[in-house]
Write a structure and sequence with these properties.
This protein is an alpha+beta fold. Helix content is 31%, strand content 19%.
């Protein structure tokens, strides 16, 4: 393709001075006419170990073209626009080792839009990240809420690797003059300059713990710690320490992780975790007497650094609960390498997930004794030894495991550490480009993310008493969720019961519950999980006696009774199916116990709620804060089933009732009763319903009053501002509303979003403005100079 500025495509021409000498010496240019008189400009050059496809790709890039392959040549037709007559043919002379390129009707090609794709690559910022950027650029201004932000695209910086420890020290130096300047600013708890370990917290995170301290002491303080999150382009570990609570962001009960402090360290090591715990404890002693020693247990991922750090600080007897999700992940990544039959990986995962909820120690021990035998008989002894050494331990010659969920109170199962992963994912939404930024910039973004958390009221209302936390779906006020895929139902999902439906079935004397008196005068109530069709006295009594068994021999006898243990060996699926069908509830010294509280609803089940409501007065929780927005930008609440109506939306019209016969297109002699008008529904439609718990309706009858010009009743309004308000109101830019309507419009929040440029001073006066995003389910309508907030579809 070397030429002396050929008149073909100047964008592709290269000066001969820049070409290798051997290529220049052998390049031949010529012209020829075809039989139709068309002029072809040709060039013959060495192929030089190139492929024809590479030559075409280099020359054309991503430009629009059509490729036609013939027997001995390839044609490229330009498709830059309709009617373009440019065509280029390529041919390879294998004997001479040359490339022959000929072009007709050539013109200068447009620039390749993807040639510099790395320099112009961009991704859309979400609202959370946009708020962090706004806070960093305007630290003194008020923040808006996420539902008021419209975002644009921002360019991504290229990833650059950097050394770890020097940048940690540089960030520490930058914090000296700014430390603790406000509630969301960083406070350095401790720093080790030699190891590059730095421990940080803020007054906001500390205040969240102190605000809930009395409830945590009463119901139990549970720490959670995870250090697998790498930040910045240097891959520094961020070890997060916080405590667990519960909330209901959707329809199910979920755990939430409330950050307390975190450490920056080159690696997840025991000294780094110990330094984080010690410095946080020293800081907490300034506010409470117990410090971190008030905690009863901690949820961790099982890493050696975390285990050693917690044992060094709390002692070897401190209860550490491993995350079941991390256990299954480690078995997949490490243990599966020791398998000779890949099918056992899926079996082991199912065994671990099912047995984690076995409450009886004897049942758990017997189950895994036989599972290990199955692995050894199949020739998988190395894999069985890996499980025993890494994920199990023996206490008094009985197998147990630190990831057993059945030993935790309802709501804090072995999946609770997933809340920390949710917190890290939330940080990624606020700072999506963190992996490509230097450490100092990432930490500045995280600092302002804390300011957004405080402004959003994150973790403002959480539940600390899990035994009383139920949802409307569990009680039966809303439609309940489907079950997980059940093995004994051929991997199908079925509808879960509610406590209301359970009470109705028992009132109708349907076979749902069987009471069994076990050894030790323990009375168990065994329920069918999914309906009376599964009722079987023998299986229900077997489950009750299985939970009351205290020896390996007694458990094995029941295994034989249910068919899980026979001459062919052990069948773990039979045991899992028994726990899938039934659940048993009984009283212990610590309170109510359920035999198999699965991870759905964080351990709370409809049967537990039914009994707990009678005994302990379980109640529906208030609107708790969430790690995710409660509603999407379209107004559909997050987690609402597809096809269900939006809260507050207009109901669908009743189908038209046609008369019988041919003329009415009816159904012949099949008659239906005429519809009766529902006057109460019509009255409800006349009033806009509350469509989102975030907002009180500014236009319902309770928001009445004398309309007035915004801020007119305030004596502190300057005359110039009052005059400008009057002008804008007359122009229809500014609506006239009542004080109650302005107070109810929480969408404004005192921000300047949507405020006319000439009216920036009016942000001090609360008001409703049509440029603000309306509450979910509403829209602004302007008729003349009057703005009205209307219901969508109304």
């Amino acid at each position: 393709m070397w030429s002396k500025r050929l008149g073909m495509s100047s964008s592709l021409a290269v000066d001969l001075d820049d070409a290798p000498e051997d290529v220049v010496a052998t390049t031949e240019e010529y012209e020829r006419h075809d039989k139709f008189g068309g002029l072809w400009r040709g060039r013959q050059e060495p192929l030089r170990e190139r492929r024809l496809a590479d030559v075409i790709s280099t020359e054309w890039g991503s430009r629009a073209r059509k490729l036609v392959r013939e027997k001995d040549r390839t044609y490229i037709y330009c498709r830059c626009q309709d009617g373009c007559k440019m065509v280029v043919q390529y041919r390879v002379d294998a004997n001479a080792g040359t490339l022959i390129r000929e072009g007709k009707n050539e013109h200068e090609l447009k620039p390749d839009m993807r040639a510099d794709i790395r320099a112009t690559a961009a991704q859309a910022e979400n609202a959370a990240a946009a708020l962090v950027q706004f806070s960093m650029a305007n630290p003194g201004k008020d923040l808006s809420r996420r539902d008021q932000v419209q975002t644009r695209k921002s360019y991504i910086k290229p990833k650059q690797m950097e050394d770890k420890i020097p940048h940690v020290l540089e960030f520490a130096e930058a914090l000296k003059d700014e430390e603790g300047r406000n509630s969301w600013g960083y406070r350095v708890l401790d720093i080790d300059k030699d190891a590059g370990i730095m421990c940080l917290s803020t007054d906001f995170y500390i205040g969240r713990l102190l605000a809930n301290w009395d409830g945590l002491k009463q119901h139990g303080l549970r720490f959670a710690c995870d250090g697998t999150h790498s930040i910045s382009n240097s891959g520094i570990k961020m070890i997060a320490l916080g405590w667990l609570a519960q909330h209901v962001p959707r329809k199910t009960i979920e755990n939430t992780f409330v950050l307390l402090a975190f450490a920056l360290s080159p690696t997840e090591s025991g000294p780094a975790v110990h330094k984080l715990l010690r410095s946080t404890h020293r800081m907490m002693l300034q506010h409470v007497r117990e410090g971190l020693h008030a905690a009863g247990l901690a949820h961790i991922d099982g890493g050696l650094g975390l285990v050693r750090g917690f044992e060094d600080f709390f002692g070897p007897d401190f209860s550490l609960v491993r995350s079941l999700e991390h256990v299954k992940r480690n078995i997949r990544d490490q243990g599966a390498k020791k398998l000779t039959q890949s099918s056992f990986w899926g079996s082991a995962k199912r065994w671990v997930a099912a047995s984690s909820f076995y409450h009886n120690d004897a049942v758990f021990h017997a189950f895994w004794v036989h599972c290990f035998e199955v692995l050894e008989k199949a020739g998988e002894k190395p894999f069985a030894e890996y499980l025993q050494n890494e994920h199990f331990r023996k206490l008094d010659n009985i197998w147990t495991a630190p990831w057993r969920s059945a030993k935790q109170r309802p709501g804090y199962a072995c999946y609770a550490l997933n809340a920390v992963d949710s917190f890290f994912r939330m940080l990624d939404r606020y700072v999506p480009q963190e992996s490509k930024l230097p450490l100092i910039e990432v930490m500045r973004h995280y600092e302002h993310a804390g300011r957004v958390f405080e402004n959003e009221g994150l973790w403002a209302e959480i539940c600390l008493e899990p035994c009383k936390l139920v949802t409307p779906a569990l009680l039966g006020d809303e439609q309940n969720e489907l079950s997980r895929r059940l093995d004994y139902k051929d991997q199908k999902q079925v509808g879960r019961l509610t406590s209301k439906s359970l009470a109705r079935l028992m009132t109708d004397k349907q076979p749902m519950m069987h009471e069994v008196c076990c050894s030790g005068n323990v009375k168990m109530q065994v329920f069918c999980k999914y309906g009376p069709a599964d009722f079987c006295v023998d299986d229900m009594e077997a489950l009750a006696h299985l939970e009351a068994a205290t020896s390996l021999e007694a458990v094995q006898a029941i295994f034989r009774q249910i068919g899980a243990l026979d001459k062919k060996g052990f069948h773990p699926r039979k045991v899992a199916q028994l726990y899938e069908k039934y659940t048993a509830l009984y009283e212990e010294a610590t309170g109510l116990v359920e035999t198999h509280q699965d991870f759905w609803q964080s351990g709370m089940t409809e049967h537990y709620a039914f009994v707990a409501q009678e005994s302990y007065g379980a109640t529906v929780p208030e609107n708790f804060s969430s790690l995710v927005p409660r509603a999407s930008s379209t107004g559909r609440p997050r987690g609402r089933p597809k096809g269900s109506k939006r809260p507050g939306a207009m109901p669908k019209k009743e189908p038209r009732v046609h008369g019988s016969g041919r003329g009415g297109r009816g159904r012949g002699q099949r008659k239906r009763p005429a519809p009766v008008a529902d006057t109460s529904a019509a009255e409800d439609l006349a009033k806009p319903a509350l469509v989102d718990e975030h907002f009180a309706d500014p236009f319902d009858p309770g928001a009445g009053g004398q309309p007035e010009l915004l801020g007119a009743a305030n004596d502190g309004v300057p005359a110039a501002v009052h005059q400008e308000m009057q002008r804008l109101a007359e122009a229809g830019v500014l609506p006239i509303t009542t004080p109650e309507q302005r107070a109810r419009n929480r969408c404004s929040g005192g921000s300047e979003y949507g405020v006319p440029a000439a009216f920036a001073d009016a942000r001090c006066f609360s008001y409703v403005h049509p440029n603000f995003p309306p509450p979910t389910g509403y829209f602004w309508r302007c008729r003349g100079s009057e703005w009205t907030l209307c219901v969508k579809g109304g």
